[in-house]
Amino acid sequence: MKKLKILDLIIFTAIAIISDWVAYSLKLFNLNLIISLSIPIIIIIYIRWSYYGIITNVMVAISHFIIFQEPPLNKLIHSISFLFLGLSLLFLLLKSYKDLPIKKRYLTLLYIPIYAVMMLVEWGLSHLTQTPISLIGHIANHSLNFIIGLAVILVASIQPNIIVSMKSYEMHLIKTKTYVKDDGYGI
Prior knowledge:
With 187 residues, this protein is an all-alpha fold.
């Protein structure tokens, strides 16, 4: 399971960073319009691997600081706001993962407040700069990305074994005797 975790984190982190870099390169990502697939990907990783999601979250925040072509303070504010996706852990610690897969309504109830907190932190911190943005404008900038991210979460939830706690999934496999012990040659 350790090799799976490492490979899984590498793949999901790469997808998150590359998709945001491509979106930024295509001008789909700036202070006025945000299209970022990394937000739902980070939340999915938190669901799958709990605390290990912090690794991806920090790497994506750093990558945004690097690729974002804005004043340093604006980049820092944006990157810090992304770190607030880590609040997913608080919600996830309150949830029992006995249900496999996780129900769509719970995924929606997880995504909405986490996204809202991230967005409000970014808006609040923007008031530290010389160019604070209006709350209505900021919500409008994020609205399309919010809808796309929610769609990604809901579509991913249809796929078996994508949005599951991997620890609970492993326990499920052991109980159903479909778990194959890693002999060190495979992943």
